[in-house]
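Why show two proteins at once? Because comparison is the fastest way to build intuition. When a single record is shown, students tend to memorize it. When two are placed side by side, the eye starts asking what differs. So, the first record is below.
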Amino acid sequence: MGVTTDALPLTQPNRLPAPPLLVGALAFLVCFGEPLALLVRDWWSDPDSGHGLLLFPVAVWLAWKRKVVADPRPQEPVGLAMLVGAIVLRYLSGLAAELFTMRMSMLGAVMGLLVYAYGFRQLVHWWLPLTLTVLSVPIPDVLLGALALPLQFKASAWGAALLEARHVPVRLAGNVLYLPGRSLFVTEACSGLRSLTALLALGVLVGGLWLRSPWSRGILVLSAIPVAMALNAVRVFLTGFLVYYVNPALADGFMHLSEGWVIFVIALAILGGFTWLLGRLEHALLRKAG
């Protein structure tokens, strides 16, 4: 005896489960929504963290351009362990109200998800966008203060030496330069740490895009440190020189800010020229080896 469709009981249409990607995104926002919101707020409002507004979109664009690995090898146990560790770190850092660790736990969770879905090869494949994302996270205040003060002293000492070389009477006391009738205080904002952070990030980006070997990329990133320090000392020198010979008012306002922008553009040009030289050296070594 055949069974007709009329004899089959009527059933309710099956409800499809929510897409795993949507569920994962919602779970991620529940766990890491607060540190993500605080991070975006700091990018927008803190001058020392503003580079994140540029670095993070560039990192996302690079990850999208490189796509996922062609032959993914998911490592579910390892990725799940990384994800659980990131969530535990998020909880502990929330109890201690430590923003940097909280933000790094968010990045750890992202890497755990990548390992779970695609394996460690995906982290290697996305090394450049992941590094830029790490660099977009603001430096902790404790480390910021520890780095800024030596840079202030170094910029003050080098700036004073340049002023003396140009026969400008100057007396140095820590990070204060005493000129006739005026004293210049090299503040934390003038320590060069902002430009150093930006140049290091740009060195990683430019090296990752235009250089091939790890040694040349490392040299390029390390070269950003003396370039930033030397040009910041030149900025201190120019400020003192203009104050002494032209007008004391040039130490403040638009002129002082424009000096910083000009110096940073010069630093970018030097970094670009150094990248070109390293690229030529790589090409010569490869040709010689071939």
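Second record. Ask yourself what differs from the first in the token line.
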Amino acid sequence: MSKELVKLAREAINSHFENKKISEEKYKKFNQKKGVFVTLKTLDDELRGCIGRIESDHLGKALVDSALNAAFNDYRFSPLEKNEKFKIEVSILTKPENIDIHEEKDLNKIKIGRDGLIIDFNGNVGLLLPVVAVEYKLDAKGFIEHTCLKAGLDKNAWRDKNCKINKFEVEVFKE
């Protein structure tokens, strides 16, 4: 399945350049209810786009949509150009699990390199994939603070008892 998911993401992006819509036949067999993120990187491993869904009713459709959005609608980057070289990573998410972390003594509930985080507070939501903590050499406190910042919150918002914190794991497939 791994190679097929990455191939499907690339095919979705290439179809866009040809002004074609990818056929439902290409993705309908991936009908699991799973979250997915598509990450695009330059050949030098610099982030070029990353968009996905925490949960979906159809993995294949969510993958195609996420690939197109990562390539053309990630507000942090200009849209991908036709001849641009890039690599694709597909991250399939496990179901998010609520964790009660509001004090530093609870930070051991986060396993760096395994867990991704979702912060949901006052309508602001931020998600960081597990690889972010590894790439930026963050400890659990730094990781949860950066997830708060990604949500547009103060870095210490996680300490508020009304802040909802979830963790998840991913299976990553790369080109």
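One difference worth noting in the second protein: Helices lie at 2-17, 24-27, 59-72, 130-135, 140-150.
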